[in-house]
Write a structure and sequence with these properties.
alpha+beta
């Protein structure tokens, strides 16, 4: 029996749940290990104008096409999207049951506009609204409607031409979920949904539960997964008891949302476990290198002490010889004693110089080793002030001072390295470009520097050894009149200093 694909509009929303983390989870980003990059041209639509744009099929759906009518209004941008010649999503993989439309803003943010279910002819329609007047449009194949990030199976994306009305932003980068995130489960029914027996939402719900289970939700997000299972059982009971299509769809949608919450939370916990493991590995490696260096210095010191002992024995022998000579001739003995004393003093002076040279060489070696270790985490430069670690603006949310996941991972690894070298001091400086007021830039730079300081303290570093300060736009390192110059000026610098590496920050 051929499937009957109906057109329906299903906007993404977090269903009512007893779990308080539901809405918080919506804002979380997927860990970078599960994603790849995509690019698409975004369009800044003129306010009050109506524009039609084309959507072309990708290599996953070369026969497909689409068209969207976009109307930018003060209260939001209205989108009327129509697609045609799309094959059932299960032809791209058993785990894919629906299509979802997305907006992609120039900063790479993606937003789920809603589900597009296609009819038997491969056509479908979605009417939606978004607050942003600047975005790209893409359509992806998904395992269920409530996904938070588009999959890498992009079937349609907008294209620009001479009829496009608006400012074009080419080659905008955004994140796509790898198919491997879902491929371990597949369609648990192993067949094409029969929409005469049950609505598509029922199959999506079963699929979402299986995907969450295989992502470890039973262990890593037990409470939400238990709620999802309970919702699934209510759905199955509604199906058996023929409780009505509306009730059945309601139960299925609640199951899908809860299962996606459980999957997302499980992935977040898995990522935190990976970060902690990498932090411990970095700390262990740094400690091993520090111990090897300490052992080397101890061996050098032992050889030095042996040389000093030999020098003392030689001195004693010289004094004895002088004393014997004195017995033979008073004048000759006095001269010999003076020569021996001078030789002893010179030997001590030479030994002191050699010790100072060895200490200086050890400090230089430790400084170079620490520079290499820090460079493996973040770009680090050796300066008269100390070792300057650069944190680019992209490690913070735009215009905010919250750390990204990537920034937390890098700072966690950096803290492991610093903990392996006692006696180091850290000064954290925040800088901005000239965009915005002086007061706003000073506040933002100070908040970012303070955020980095608090995170490093949370990783075990001493609060007394870390200071932070914001400088706003007062210390640019590049020309603020260019976009590249402003990007370089938006930064956080961590200056590592201390007697152990021969550098103190100039006051």
């Amino acid at each position: 029996m051929k499937p009957h694909w109906k057109m329906i509009i299903l906007p993404l929303a977090c269903l009512a749940s007893t779990n308080s983390v539901c809405h918080a989870l919506i804002e979380k980003q997927e860990p970078a290990v599960n994603v790849i990059k995509g690019t698409v041209a975004a369009i800044g639509y003129h306010m009050g104008a109506n524009t039609r744009i084309d959507l072309n099929g990708s290599r996953h759906a070369t026969q497909a096409s689409g068209e969207a009518r976009v109307s930018a209004r003060p209260k939001g941008t209205e989108i009327d999207l129509r697609v045609s010649d799309l094959r059932p999503p299960s032809t791209l993989g058993g785990q894919f049951l629906t299509y979802v439309a997305w907006t992609v803003t120039p900063d790479g943010t993606t937003k789920n506009l809603g589900e597009i279910q296609i009819n038997q002819n491969g056509s479908g329609r979605l009417e939606a609204r978004t607050l942003s007047p600047t975005f790209a449009l893409i359509v992806t194949a998904e395992p269920y409607f409530a996904v938070r990030m588009p999959s890498e199976l992009v079937v349609l994306k907008n294209v620009t031409n001479n009829r496009t009305r608006g400012q074009i932003f080419p080659n905008n980068s955004y994140k796509l979920m790898k198919v491997s995130e879902y491929s371990r489960s597949g369609n648990p029914l192993s067949l094409i949904p029969d929409l005469k027996k049950a609505p598509l939402e029922v199959y999506q719900a079963r699929n979402a539960i299986e995907i969450a289970r295989l992502r470890g939700a039973e262990q890593r997000s037990q409470r939400i997964f238990a709620e999802a299972n309970a919702a699934l059982q209510r759905m199955e009971n509604s199906l058996k008891q023929n409780s009505g299509r509306n009730q059945l769809i309601s139960d299925a949608r609640q199951t899908i949302q809860l299962a996606e919450d459980a999957r997302a939370l499980a992935v977040q916990h898995e990522e935190l476990e990976r970060i902690e493991s990498e932090k411990q590995a970095a700390a262990a490696a740094a400690a091993a290198k520090a111990k090897a260096e300490a052992d080397r210095r101890a061996a050098v010191e032992a050889r030095h002490q042996a040389e000093l002992a030999a020098a003392r024995e030689a001195q004693i022998a010289a004094v004895a010889a002088a004393h014997a000579a004195e017995q033979r001739a008073q004048a000759q003995a006095a001269a010999a004693a003076a020569a021996a004393e001078q030789a002893a003093l010179q030997a001590k002076a030479d030994a002191a110089k050699e010790e100072a040279a060895r200490a200086h060489a050890a400090t230089i070696a430790l400084r170079a080793q620490l520079l290499q270790q820090l460079n493996s985490v973040l770009q680090t430069t050796d300066t008269p002030r100390g070792l300057v670690v650069q944190m680019a603006d992209v490690l913070f949310d735009i215009g905010k001072f919250t750390l990204s996941k990537d920034a937390q991972l890098k700072l966690a690894r950096l803290s492991g390295i610093i903990l392996a070298h006692p006696g180091l001091n850290l000064t954290i400086e925040g800088h901005t470009d000239n965009t915005g007021s002086d007061a706003l830039n000073m506040t933002l730079s100070d908040q970012r520097a303070s955020t980095v300081r608090q995170f490093l303290i949370s990783q075990g570093l001493s609060a007394n050894a870390i200071s932070s300060k914001g400088f706003g736009l007062s210390k640019p390192i590049a020309d603020n009149s260019t976009a590249e110059g402003r990007r370089q000026n938006r930064r956080v610098e961590i200056i590592v200093s201390g007697q152990a590496i021969g550098a103190d920050i100039a006051k």
